[in-house]
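F.,

This is the one I mentioned.
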Protein backbone atom coordinates (compact mmCIF):
# COMPACT_ATOMS: atom_id res chain seq x y z
CA UNK A 1 0.00 0.00 0.00
CA UNK A 2 1.25 3.49 -0.85
CA UNK A 3 1.75 5.59 2.26
CA UNK A 4 0.61 9.21 2.30
CA UNK A 5 2.97 11.71 3.91
CA UNK A 6 1.48 14.74 5.64
CA UNK A 7 2.59 18.26 6.39
CA UNK A 8 3.19 19.18 10.02
CA UNK A 9 1.59 22.54 10.79
CA UNK A 10 0.56 24.04 14.11
CA UNK A 11 1.28 20.74 15.85
CA UNK A 12 -0.98 18.69 13.54
CA UNK A 13 -0.30 16.34 10.65
CA UNK A 14 -2.30 17.83 7.82
CA UNK A 15 -3.11 17.19 4.16
CA UNK A 16 -2.36 19.94 1.61
CA UNK A 17 -5.33 22.23 1.02
CA UNK A 18 -5.44 21.35 -2.69
CA UNK A 19 -5.23 17.62 -1.93
CA UNK A 20 -2.50 17.41 -4.56
CA UNK A 21 0.40 15.01 -4.05
CA UNK A 22 3.75 14.21 -5.65
CA UNK A 23 4.99 10.63 -6.14
CA UNK A 24 7.97 9.56 -4.02
CA UNK A 25 10.18 6.84 -5.53
CA UNK A 26 12.47 4.28 -4.00
CA UNK A 27 15.67 4.75 -6.06
CA UNK A 28 16.78 1.15 -5.61
CA UNK A 29 13.63 -0.20 -7.28
CA UNK A 30 12.48 2.78 -9.36
CA UNK A 31 9.01 2.27 -7.86
CA UNK A 32 6.65 4.72 -6.18
CA UNK A 33 6.28 3.95 -2.49
CA UNK A 34 4.66 7.07 -1.05
CA UNK A 35 2.98 10.34 -1.89
CA UNK A 36 4.08 13.68 -0.50
CA UNK A 37 1.96 16.86 -0.33
CA UNK A 38 2.31 19.18 -3.29
CA UNK A 39 1.73 22.17 -1.03
CA UNK A 40 1.04 25.66 -2.31
CA UNK A 41 1.01 29.27 -1.12
CA UNK A 42 -2.03 28.69 1.06
CA UNK A 43 -0.33 25.82 2.96
CA UNK A 44 2.90 27.78 3.28
CA UNK A 45 1.08 30.86 4.55
CA UNK A 46 -0.75 28.73 7.09
CA UNK A 47 2.57 27.35 8.36
CA UNK A 48 4.05 30.85 8.61
CA UNK A 49 1.06 32.12 10.57
CA UNK A 50 1.27 29.13 12.94
CA UNK A 51 4.98 29.85 13.47
CA UNK A 52 4.21 33.53 14.04
CA UNK A 53 1.58 32.69 16.64
CA UNK A 54 3.97 30.35 18.48
CA UNK A 55 6.87 32.81 18.50
CA UNK A 56 6.01 35.06 21.51
CA UNK A 57 5.82 32.17 23.98
CA UNK A 58 8.66 30.06 22.51
CA UNK A 59 11.04 33.01 22.33
CA UNK A 60 10.40 33.88 25.98
CA UNK A 61 11.37 30.42 27.23
CA UNK A 62 14.88 30.09 28.57
CA UNK A 63 17.50 28.33 26.43
CA UNK A 64 17.41 25.56 29.03
CA UNK A 65 13.66 24.99 28.51
CA UNK A 66 14.00 25.00 24.73
CA UNK A 67 16.99 22.74 24.96
CA UNK A 68 14.99 20.26 27.09
CA UNK A 69 12.43 19.92 24.30
CA UNK A 70 15.20 19.42 21.76
CA UNK A 71 16.96 16.82 23.87
CA UNK A 72 13.67 14.92 24.13
CA UNK A 73 13.52 14.91 20.33
CA UNK A 74 17.10 13.62 20.20
CA UNK A 75 16.31 10.85 22.62
CA UNK A 76 13.24 9.74 20.59
CA UNK A 77 15.29 9.81 17.38
CA UNK A 78 17.83 7.62 19.12
CA UNK A 79 15.13 5.14 20.12
CA UNK A 80 13.90 5.06 16.50
CA UNK A 81 17.40 4.99 14.98
CA UNK A 82 17.12 1.66 13.27
CA UNK A 83 13.78 2.51 11.60
CA UNK A 84 15.02 5.96 10.61
CA UNK A 85 18.15 4.49 9.03
CA UNK A 86 15.97 2.14 7.01
CA UNK A 87 13.70 5.01 5.88
CA UNK A 88 16.67 7.21 4.94
CA UNK A 89 18.23 4.42 2.93
CA UNK A 90 14.92 3.63 1.18
CA UNK A 91 14.32 7.30 0.32
CA UNK A 92 17.82 8.15 -0.92
CA UNK A 93 19.21 4.84 -2.22
CA UNK A 94 22.22 5.06 0.11
CA UNK A 95 23.52 1.86 1.75
CA UNK A 96 21.77 1.19 5.02
CA UNK A 97 25.19 0.87 6.67
CA UNK A 98 25.88 4.51 5.75
CA UNK A 99 22.54 5.75 7.08
CA UNK A 100 23.25 3.86 10.33
CA UNK A 101 26.80 5.13 10.60
CA UNK A 102 26.44 8.70 9.37
CA UNK A 103 22.96 10.15 8.80
CA UNK A 104 21.09 9.22 11.93
CA UNK A 105 23.93 9.52 14.49
CA UNK A 106 24.79 12.94 13.09
CA UNK A 107 21.13 14.05 13.27
CA UNK A 108 21.16 13.11 16.97
CA UNK A 109 24.48 14.87 17.48
CA UNK A 110 23.07 18.07 15.96
CA UNK A 111 20.63 18.22 18.88
CA UNK A 112 23.05 17.26 21.63
CA UNK A 113 25.83 19.49 20.31
CA UNK A 114 23.77 22.70 20.17
CA UNK A 115 22.18 21.94 23.55
CA UNK A 116 25.62 21.62 25.15
CA UNK A 117 27.09 24.50 23.22
CA UNK A 118 24.45 27.00 24.34
CA UNK A 119 24.55 26.10 28.04
CA UNK A 120 26.60 29.20 28.89
CA UNK A 121 25.11 31.46 26.24
CA UNK A 122 24.10 34.90 27.53
CA UNK A 123 21.62 37.04 25.64
CA UNK A 124 23.34 40.34 26.42
CA UNK A 125 26.73 41.93 26.97
CA UNK A 126 27.91 45.45 27.78
CA UNK A 127 30.65 47.92 26.83
CA UNK A 128 31.40 50.76 29.21
CA UNK A 129 33.37 53.90 28.47
CA UNK A 130 33.81 57.17 30.35
CA UNK A 131 30.71 58.71 28.79
CA UNK A 132 28.43 55.79 27.95
CA UNK A 133 27.28 52.39 28.87
CA UNK A 134 26.23 50.18 25.95
CA UNK A 135 23.97 47.28 26.60
CA UNK A 136 23.88 44.84 23.65
CA UNK A 137 20.82 42.69 23.63
CA UNK A 138 20.56 39.52 21.55
CA UNK A 139 17.15 38.25 20.53
CA UNK A 140 15.72 35.71 18.13
CA UNK A 141 14.66 36.87 14.68
CA UNK A 142 11.08 35.55 14.61
CA UNK A 143 9.88 33.09 11.96
CA UNK A 144 12.76 31.61 10.00
CA UNK A 145 12.84 29.09 7.14
CA UNK A 146 15.10 26.11 6.53
CA UNK A 147 15.27 24.67 2.99
CA UNK A 148 17.17 21.41 2.54
CA UNK A 149 18.29 19.04 -0.25
CA UNK A 150 17.87 15.31 -0.83
CA UNK A 151 21.36 13.93 -0.20
CA UNK A 152 21.50 13.97 3.62
CA UNK A 153 17.86 14.60 4.47
CA UNK A 154 17.54 14.32 8.26
CA UNK A 155 21.18 15.23 8.90
CA UNK A 156 20.91 18.59 7.10
CA UNK A 157 17.37 19.39 8.25
CA UNK A 158 18.34 19.02 11.92
CA UNK A 159 21.64 20.88 11.35
CA UNK A 160 19.50 23.94 10.57
CA UNK A 161 16.36 23.66 12.66
CA UNK A 162 18.17 22.92 15.95
CA UNK A 163 20.21 26.17 16.20
CA UNK A 164 17.17 28.12 14.92
CA UNK A 165 14.88 26.67 17.58
CA UNK A 166 17.35 26.77 20.44
CA UNK A 167 17.89 30.49 19.88
CA UNK A 168 14.14 31.06 20.23
CA UNK A 169 13.00 31.30 16.62
CA UNK A 170 10.05 29.38 15.25
CA UNK A 171 10.61 27.49 12.04
CA UNK A 172 9.03 26.68 8.71
CA UNK A 173 11.06 23.86 7.16
CA UNK A 174 10.91 22.63 3.58
CA UNK A 175 12.62 19.29 3.00
CA UNK A 176 13.30 18.11 -0.54
CA UNK A 177 10.16 16.50 -1.92
CA UNK A 178 12.43 13.81 -3.39
CA UNK A 179 13.33 12.49 0.10
CA UNK A 180 10.67 13.68 2.56
CA UNK A 181 10.17 10.59 4.69
CA UNK A 182 12.45 11.12 7.71
CA UNK A 183 11.19 14.72 8.05
CA UNK A 184 7.68 13.22 8.25
CA UNK A 185 8.87 10.83 10.96
CA UNK A 186 10.45 13.77 12.79
CA UNK A 187 7.03 15.47 12.70
CA UNK A 188 5.48 12.40 14.34
CA UNK A 189 8.19 12.51 16.99
CA UNK A 190 7.45 16.21 17.63
CA UNK A 191 3.82 15.26 18.29
CA UNK A 192 4.91 12.41 20.55
CA UNK A 193 6.96 14.69 22.82
CA UNK A 194 4.31 17.46 22.73
CA UNK A 195 6.49 20.09 21.13
CA UNK A 196 4.32 23.23 21.41
CA UNK A 197 2.19 23.75 18.27
CA UNK A 198 3.65 26.04 15.61
CA UNK A 199 7.22 25.97 16.95
CA UNK A 200 8.34 23.72 14.09
CA UNK A 201 6.29 23.40 10.89
CA UNK A 202 7.25 21.11 8.03
CA UNK A 203 5.80 21.95 4.64
CA UNK A 204 6.38 19.51 1.81
CA UNK A 205 6.29 20.40 -1.85
CA UNK A 206 8.29 21.70 -4.73
CA UNK A 207 10.85 24.46 -4.71
CA UNK A 208 8.78 26.12 -7.41
CA UNK A 209 5.82 26.53 -5.09
CA UNK A 210 6.76 26.22 -1.42
CA UNK A 211 10.37 27.37 -1.89
CA UNK A 212 9.28 30.43 -3.87
CA UNK A 213 6.60 31.37 -1.36
CA UNK A 214 9.07 31.06 1.52
CA UNK A 215 11.49 33.29 -0.37
CA UNK A 216 9.02 36.13 -0.86
CA UNK A 217 6.97 35.79 2.34
CA UNK A 218 7.14 39.10 4.24
CA UNK A 219 6.93 37.46 7.68
CA UNK A 220 9.94 35.17 7.20
CA UNK A 221 12.99 36.91 8.60
CA UNK A 222 15.75 34.56 7.49
CA UNK A 223 16.39 31.59 5.23
CA UNK A 224 19.00 28.96 5.88
CA UNK A 225 19.34 27.06 2.60
CA UNK A 226 21.41 24.11 1.44
CA UNK A 227 21.25 23.06 -2.19
CA UNK A 228 22.58 23.90 -5.62
CA UNK A 229 24.27 27.17 -6.57
CA UNK A 230 21.62 27.99 -9.17
CA UNK A 231 18.81 27.69 -6.63
CA UNK A 232 20.86 29.63 -4.07
CA UNK A 233 21.21 32.43 -6.63
CA UNK A 234 17.45 32.54 -7.20
CA UNK A 235 16.81 32.74 -3.46
CA UNK A 236 19.47 35.44 -3.11
CA UNK A 237 17.88 37.69 -5.70
CA UNK A 238 14.24 37.13 -4.66
CA UNK A 239 14.76 37.30 -0.89
CA UNK A 240 16.53 40.64 -1.14
CA UNK A 241 13.17 42.30 -1.78
CA UNK A 242 12.11 41.56 1.79
CA UNK A 243 15.64 42.01 3.22
CA UNK A 244 15.86 38.53 4.70
CA UNK A 245 19.00 37.29 6.37
CA UNK A 246 20.48 34.50 4.26
CA UNK A 247 22.84 31.59 4.78
CA UNK A 248 23.34 29.70 1.52
CA UNK A 249 25.32 26.47 1.45
CA UNK A 250 25.73 25.46 -2.18
CA UNK A 251 27.57 23.29 -4.68
CA UNK A 252 31.21 22.32 -5.04
CA UNK A 253 33.83 20.86 -7.37
CA UNK A 254 36.25 19.77 -4.73
CA UNK A 255 39.91 18.97 -5.39
CA UNK A 256 41.89 16.24 -3.62
CA UNK A 257 45.55 17.23 -3.82
CA UNK A 258 47.82 14.21 -3.61
CA UNK A 259 51.53 14.85 -3.08
CA UNK A 260 54.07 12.10 -3.60
CA UNK A 261 55.16 12.38 0.07
CA UNK A 262 51.75 11.40 1.45
CA UNK A 263 51.02 8.39 3.62
CA UNK A 264 50.05 6.43 0.53
CA UNK A 265 47.89 3.68 2.03
CA UNK A 266 45.95 6.01 4.27
CA UNK A 267 45.47 8.41 1.35
CA UNK A 268 44.21 5.66 -0.97
CA UNK A 269 41.75 4.34 1.60
CA UNK A 270 40.33 7.80 2.31
CA UNK A 271 40.26 9.11 -1.26
CA UNK A 272 38.11 6.12 -2.25
CA UNK A 273 35.66 7.23 0.45
CA UNK A 274 35.88 10.93 -0.34
CA UNK A 275 35.15 10.17 -4.00
CA UNK A 276 32.32 7.65 -3.75
CA UNK A 277 30.58 7.80 -0.37
CA UNK A 278 26.82 8.16 -0.91
CA UNK A 279 27.46 7.48 -4.63
CA UNK A 280 29.44 10.73 -4.78
CA UNK A 281 26.35 12.66 -3.70
CA UNK A 282 27.87 14.56 -0.79
CA UNK A 283 28.67 18.20 -1.39
CA UNK A 284 32.08 17.59 0.21
CA UNK A 285 33.04 14.66 -2.03
CA UNK A 286 36.28 14.95 -3.97
CA UNK A 287 35.50 15.12 -7.68
CA UNK A 288 38.84 16.33 -9.07
CA UNK A 289 41.82 14.23 -8.04
CA UNK A 290 45.05 16.17 -8.60
CA UNK A 291 48.02 13.83 -8.44
CA UNK A 292 51.75 14.49 -8.24
CA UNK A 293 53.01 13.32 -11.64
CA UNK A 294 55.78 11.25 -10.02
CA UNK A 295 53.21 8.84 -8.52
CA UNK A 296 50.48 9.18 -11.15
CA UNK A 297 50.87 5.77 -12.83
CA UNK A 298 51.04 3.91 -9.52
CA UNK A 299 48.09 5.86 -8.11
CA UNK A 300 46.02 5.25 -11.22
CA UNK A 301 46.52 1.49 -11.09
CA UNK A 302 45.94 1.17 -7.34
CA UNK A 303 42.97 3.54 -7.25
CA UNK A 304 41.23 1.91 -10.20
CA UNK A 305 41.78 -1.55 -8.77
CA UNK A 306 40.16 -0.48 -5.49
CA UNK A 307 37.28 1.29 -7.25
CA UNK A 308 36.51 -1.79 -9.33
CA UNK A 309 36.08 -3.77 -6.08
CA UNK A 310 33.52 -1.41 -4.48
CA UNK A 311 30.45 -3.54 -3.69
CA UNK A 312 27.49 -2.09 -5.57
CA UNK A 313 24.24 -3.52 -4.33
CA UNK A 314 20.79 -3.32 -2.84
CA UNK A 315 20.92 -0.53 -0.24
CA UNK A 316 19.08 -2.87 2.16
CA UNK A 317 21.96 -5.31 2.16
CA UNK A 318 24.32 -4.56 5.04
CA UNK A 319 27.32 -5.59 2.88
CA UNK A 320 26.54 -2.98 0.20
CA UNK A 321 29.06 -0.15 -0.06
CA UNK A 322 27.53 1.73 -2.99
CA UNK A 323 23.81 2.10 -3.65
CA UNK A 324 21.46 3.81 -6.09
CA UNK A 325 21.35 7.35 -7.47
CA UNK A 326 18.68 9.26 -5.58
CA UNK A 327 16.35 10.34 -8.39
CA UNK A 328 15.68 9.57 -12.04
CA UNK A 329 16.40 13.16 -13.21
CA UNK A 330 19.71 13.03 -11.34
CA UNK A 331 20.48 9.58 -12.82
CA UNK A 332 19.84 11.10 -16.29
CA UNK A 333 22.09 14.06 -15.50
CA UNK A 334 24.98 11.79 -14.48
CA UNK A 335 24.51 9.70 -17.64
CA UNK A 336 24.62 12.88 -19.68
CA UNK A 337 28.11 13.53 -18.25
CA UNK A 338 29.18 9.95 -18.91
CA UNK A 339 28.15 10.39 -22.54
CA UNK A 340 30.20 13.57 -22.69
CA UNK A 341 33.47 11.87 -21.66
CA UNK A 342 34.27 10.59 -25.12
CA UNK A 343 33.29 13.89 -26.77
CA UNK A 344 35.65 15.74 -24.43
CA UNK A 345 38.48 13.30 -25.30
CA UNK A 346 38.50 11.67 -21.88
CA UNK A 347 39.21 7.97 -21.25
CA UNK A 348 37.18 5.93 -18.84
CA UNK A 349 39.53 3.90 -16.65
CA UNK A 350 36.85 2.18 -14.56
CA UNK A 351 33.04 2.21 -14.63
CA UNK A 352 31.17 4.44 -17.04
CA UNK A 353 28.11 2.19 -17.25
CA UNK A 354 24.61 1.91 -15.93
CA UNK A 355 24.79 -1.00 -13.52
CA UNK A 356 22.25 -3.72 -14.29
CA UNK A 357 20.90 -5.23 -11.10
CA UNK A 358 18.82 -8.30 -10.34
CA UNK A 359 15.61 -9.07 -8.52
CA UNK A 360 14.15 -6.27 -6.43
CA UNK A 361 16.60 -3.73 -7.87
CA UNK A 362 16.30 -4.56 -11.59
CA UNK A 363 14.56 -1.24 -12.36
CA UNK A 364 16.66 0.80 -9.91
CA UNK A 365 18.91 3.73 -10.80
CA UNK A 366 22.45 2.38 -10.42
CA UNK A 367 25.58 3.78 -12.05
CA UNK A 368 29.06 2.33 -11.63
CA UNK A 369 31.68 4.39 -9.82
CA UNK A 370 33.59 5.98 -12.67
CA UNK A 371 37.18 7.23 -13.02
CA UNK A 372 38.23 9.35 -16.00
CA UNK A 373 41.57 10.68 -17.22
CA UNK A 374 42.75 12.79 -20.12
CA UNK A 375 40.18 15.61 -19.89
CA UNK A 376 41.16 19.22 -20.46
CA UNK A 377 41.09 21.68 -17.56
CA UNK A 378 38.24 23.51 -19.25
CA UNK A 379 36.14 20.45 -20.06
CA UNK A 380 32.59 20.39 -18.74
CA UNK A 381 33.49 17.35 -16.66
CA UNK A 382 36.24 19.25 -14.89
CA UNK A 383 34.18 22.41 -14.50
CA UNK A 384 30.60 21.41 -13.67
CA UNK A 385 29.37 20.01 -10.40
CA UNK A 386 28.13 16.54 -11.35
CA UNK A 387 27.31 15.49 -7.79
CA UNK A 388 27.60 11.82 -8.62
CA UNK A 389 30.04 8.92 -8.86
CA UNK A 390 32.43 10.40 -11.45
CA UNK A 391 35.94 11.54 -10.56
CA UNK A 392 38.51 12.98 -12.94
CA UNK A 393 42.29 12.52 -12.65
CA UNK A 394 44.77 15.28 -13.46
CA UNK A 395 48.49 15.58 -12.80
CA UNK A 396 50.66 18.37 -11.42
CA UNK A 397 54.38 18.93 -11.15
CA UNK A 398 54.75 21.85 -8.72
CA UNK A 399 53.17 23.37 -5.63
CA UNK A 400 52.26 26.59 -7.48
CA UNK A 401 50.84 24.57 -10.35
CA UNK A 402 48.53 22.51 -8.18
CA UNK A 403 47.27 25.57 -6.30
CA UNK A 404 46.31 27.15 -9.63
CA UNK A 405 44.66 23.97 -10.80
CA UNK A 406 42.73 23.50 -7.56
CA UNK A 407 41.46 27.08 -7.65
CA UNK A 408 40.43 26.92 -11.30
CA UNK A 409 36.73 26.67 -10.53
CA UNK A 410 33.88 28.98 -9.65
CA UNK A 411 33.27 26.83 -6.58
CA UNK A 412 35.11 26.89 -3.26
CA UNK A 413 33.49 24.43 -0.93
CA UNK A 414 36.07 21.90 0.26
CA UNK A 415 39.51 20.50 -0.53
CA UNK A 416 41.68 17.70 0.81
CA UNK A 417 45.48 17.81 0.87
CA UNK A 418 47.62 14.70 1.23
CA UNK A 419 51.22 15.14 2.37
CA UNK A 420 53.35 14.13 5.33
CA UNK A 421 55.08 17.52 5.09
CA UNK A 422 52.65 19.43 7.28
CA UNK A 423 54.21 22.83 6.74
CA UNK A 424 53.88 22.35 2.97
CA UNK A 425 50.29 21.15 3.39
CA UNK A 426 49.48 24.20 5.53
CA UNK A 427 51.15 26.50 3.03
CA UNK A 428 49.01 25.06 0.24
CA UNK A 429 45.85 25.14 2.41
CA UNK A 430 46.29 28.87 2.98
CA UNK A 431 46.26 29.45 -0.78
CA UNK A 432 43.32 27.23 -1.67
CA UNK A 433 40.06 29.14 -2.06
CA UNK A 434 37.85 26.70 -0.20
CA UNK A 435 35.91 27.14 3.02
CA UNK A 436 36.56 23.65 4.38
CA UNK A 437 40.04 22.13 4.01
CA UNK A 438 41.15 18.77 5.31
CA UNK A 439 44.81 17.75 5.60
CA UNK A 440 45.32 13.97 5.59
CA UNK A 441 41.67 13.30 6.39
CA UNK A 442 38.14 13.86 5.07
CA UNK A 443 34.74 14.55 6.66
CA UNK A 444 36.23 14.89 10.13
CA UNK A 445 33.95 17.44 11.76
CA UNK A 446 34.15 19.41 14.98
CA UNK A 447 30.71 21.05 15.06
CA UNK A 448 32.09 24.18 16.76
CA UNK A 449 33.98 25.15 13.60
CA UNK A 450 32.55 27.44 10.90
CA UNK A 451 31.21 25.49 7.95
CA UNK A 452 30.58 26.88 4.49
CA UNK A 453 32.02 27.49 1.09
CA UNK A 454 33.78 30.41 -0.57
CA UNK A 455 33.14 31.86 -4.04
CA UNK A 456 29.92 30.41 -5.52
CA UNK A 457 29.74 27.63 -2.92
CA UNK A 458 28.59 29.62 0.03
CA UNK A 459 27.19 32.82 1.40
CA UNK A 460 27.39 32.97 5.19
CA UNK A 461 28.54 30.20 7.49
CA UNK A 462 26.92 27.46 9.52
CA UNK A 463 28.18 25.58 12.57
CA UNK A 464 28.90 26.54 16.20
CA UNK A 465 28.88 30.23 16.98
CA UNK A 466 28.11 31.17 13.36
CA UNK A 467 24.82 29.29 13.35
CA UNK A 468 23.78 30.86 16.67
CA UNK A 469 24.72 34.31 15.42
CA UNK A 470 22.84 33.78 12.17
CA UNK A 471 19.61 33.02 13.99
CA UNK A 472 19.99 36.01 16.35
CA UNK A 473 19.40 39.74 16.11
CA UNK A 474 21.43 42.27 18.08
CA UNK A 475 20.35 45.61 19.46
CA UNK A 476 22.52 48.23 21.15
CA UNK A 477 21.04 50.34 23.96
CA UNK A 478 23.34 53.23 24.84
CA UNK A 479 22.95 55.17 28.11
CA UNK A 480 24.95 58.29 28.88
CA UNK A 481 26.98 57.82 32.06
P1 LIG B 1 18.41 22.13 -5.19
O1 LIG B 1 17.74 21.66 -6.43
O2 LIG B 1 19.04 23.46 -5.20
O3 LIG B 1 17.29 22.05 -4.04
C1 LIG B 1 17.57 22.31 -2.68
C2 LIG B 1 16.26 22.67 -2.00
O4 LIG B 1 15.80 23.93 -2.53
C3 LIG B 1 15.14 21.68 -2.27
O5 LIG B 1 14.32 21.58 -1.13
C4 LIG B 1 14.42 22.33 -3.43
O6 LIG B 1 13.11 21.91 -3.62
C5 LIG B 1 14.48 23.79 -3.02
N1 LIG B 1 14.25 24.73 -4.12
C6 LIG B 1 14.32 24.49 -5.45
N2 LIG B 1 14.02 25.62 -6.15
C7 LIG B 1 13.77 26.58 -5.23
C8 LIG B 1 13.41 27.96 -5.31
N3 LIG B 1 13.27 28.58 -6.49
N4 LIG B 1 13.22 28.64 -4.17
C9 LIG B 1 13.41 28.05 -2.97
N5 LIG B 1 13.71 26.74 -2.83
C10 LIG B 1 13.91 26.01 -3.94
O7 LIG B 1 19.52 21.10 -4.71
P2 LIG B 1 19.39 19.53 -4.65
O8 LIG B 1 19.43 19.00 -6.04
O9 LIG B 1 18.26 19.16 -3.76
O10 LIG B 1 20.74 19.15 -3.87
C11 LIG B 1 21.97 19.00 -4.50
C12 LIG B 1 22.81 20.24 -4.35
O11 LIG B 1 22.96 20.56 -2.97
C13 LIG B 1 24.23 20.07 -4.87
O12 LIG B 1 24.58 21.20 -5.61
C14 LIG B 1 25.07 19.96 -3.60
O13 LIG B 1 26.41 20.37 -3.74
C15 LIG B 1 24.31 20.87 -2.70
N6 LIG B 1 24.63 20.61 -1.31
C16 LIG B 1 25.42 21.51 -0.66
C17 LIG B 1 25.78 21.28 0.66
C18 LIG B 1 26.64 22.26 1.41
O14 LIG B 1 26.75 22.15 2.63
N7 LIG B 1 27.27 23.22 0.74
C19 LIG B 1 25.32 20.13 1.32
C20 LIG B 1 24.52 19.23 0.62
C21 LIG B 1 24.17 19.48 -0.71
P3 LIG B 1 12.85 20.83 -4.81
O15 LIG B 1 13.41 19.56 -4.27
O16 LIG B 1 11.43 20.85 -5.02
O17 LIG B 1 13.60 21.31 -6.02
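My design for it:
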Amino acid sequence: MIEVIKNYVNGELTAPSSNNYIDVFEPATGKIYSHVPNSDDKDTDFAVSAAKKAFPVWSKHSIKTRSNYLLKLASEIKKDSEDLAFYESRDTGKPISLARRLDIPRAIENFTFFSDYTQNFTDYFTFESKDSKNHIQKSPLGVVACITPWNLPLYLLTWKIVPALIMGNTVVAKPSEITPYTAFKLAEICKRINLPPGVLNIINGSGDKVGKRITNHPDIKAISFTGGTETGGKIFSKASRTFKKLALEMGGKNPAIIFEDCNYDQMLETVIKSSFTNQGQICLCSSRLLIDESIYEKFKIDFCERVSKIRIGDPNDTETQFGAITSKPHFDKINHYINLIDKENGSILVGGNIKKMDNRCEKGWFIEPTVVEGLGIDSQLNKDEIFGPIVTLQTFSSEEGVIKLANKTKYGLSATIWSEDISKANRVAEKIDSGVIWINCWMVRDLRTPFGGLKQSGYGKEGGEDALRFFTEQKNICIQS
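The chain has two domains: 3-250+457-480, 254-446.

Talk soon.
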